[in-house]
Amino acid sequence: MGKKAPETTGNAATRYAAIDIGSNAVRLLIKSIDPNEPDRLTKILLIRIPLRLGIDAFSLGEISKEKVKKLVRLMKAYRQLMKIYDVAAYRACATSAMRDARNGSGVIRKVRQATGIPIEIIDGQEEARMIYNNHIEYMRDRCGNFMYIDVGGGSTEINLLVNGQLLCSRSYNIGTIRMLNGAVAEEEWMRLQNDMTEIARSYPQIDIIGSGGNINKLYRLSPAKDEENQRIATDDLAALHAAIERMSVEERIERLGLKSDRADVIVPAGTIFLYIARCLEARHIYVPMIGLADGIIDDIYLNHRRASHRIPIE
Fold first, then answer.
1. Which of 37, 73, 195, 293 has an alpha carbon 20 to 30 Å from 278's alpha carbon atom?
2. Cα distance between residue 76 and residue 209, in whole Å
C-alpha cells in the first residue's frame, strides 16, 4: 500500500475508525484523539477503494456475487488495518447502493460471518445527520444561511443551517453513479427543485457547503478558487464544469490527472451541485474537504461512552 506502519509508542491517544460503504467507493478512515487536545481529531489513515457497488444496485437491482466477494476481501483487509492501528472503536455504514439492493441485508450478513464486521445500512436521514455532525465545529463562528450538500454515488444529502443551527435534513435518490446509469427518476429532480425553491423563498442569500470527493477535486482544479475563505464562486464552478464536460474521459485522465473512477463521475457531480446552486441562487460553495466518514467518527466520539458505539477490534 506504500503506507508506513505506525510506530508503537506509549502515548494514550485514542483512535477511532469509520468504514463508509458508498455507491462508488468504500473508504476506511482512522483518526486519533490526543488526550491533551480532546477537541482535535487528526487523520491517521485514509484508504479509498472504488468497488462501485452502485453499478450493480442501480442497474441489476442487487449486488453481484463477484462484487460481494471483493467487498468481503476488502473488509478483511480493513479489519486487519484497524487492528494494526490499535483502533479502540469503529462503525461501518452502508448507504444508497446497499439500501437499494434486493440482497443488501444478505450481503451484510455474509460480510459479518466472514469478517466479524457488523455493517449498518443507514437511511438518507441518518446519513445526512452524521454528515452534519462533522460541520458543527466548522460552522461555530459563522452566521447566515448555508445549505450543506453531500453528493454521493447513489444519493444527495442536504442540511439547511441558519446561523449555525440545523433546521432540516433531506435525502434524494440523485447521485453520480445513478446518473451514469440513467437511473434517476424525473420526479426526483422535480422534488429536489421544488424543495430548494421553497427553501430559497424562506431563507434568502444561501451559500453552499459542499462535501464529497468530487467537489473537493473540482475545488483543487479551479484556478479561480478563493483559498483564503476555502470557497469557489458558483460562476467559476460553472465555467470549470463546462470545460471538463467538453473533454472525453481519457482527456480528463491525461490532462487533469484524474483517476479513472473519478474522471467519469466528476461531471454528474458538478451537474448536481450547480443544479442546486441555481435553485438557491447561491453565490459561493465552501469546500472544507470533509465527508461522511468524518461524520461517522465524530458520531462515535460524541457518543463514546455508549457501549453500542464501542466495538473492540478482537
1. 293
2. 34
What is the grid cell recorded at 311?
Answer: 466495538
Per-residue CA distances from 303 to 11, 16, 111 (Å): 22, 12, 25
Q: Return the closest-CA partner of residue 122 out of 90, 149, 77, 91.
A: 91
Q: How far apart are CA 142 and CA 123, in angstroms?
A: 29
List the grid coordinates of 39: 477537541
Say whether 299 sits in a helix, a strand or coil: helix
Q: Taking the complete model, does pTM exceed 0.85, yes or no?
A: no
Cβ contact 218:266 at 8 Å:
yes
Mapping DSSP to helix (H, G, I), strand (E, B) and coil, where does residue 75 land? helix
Give the model confidence (pLDDT) of 49-96 as tens digits: 999 999 999 999 999 999 999 999 999 999 999 999 999 999 999 999
Task: Using DSSP, state whether 120 is helix, strand or coil.
Answer: strand
Largest Cα–Cα distance of the chain, in whole Å? 57
Confidence category of residue 4, pLDDT binned at 50, 70, 90 = very low
- Return the number of other C-beta atoms located less than 10 Å from residue 170's C-beta: 17
Side chain identity, residue 218:
L
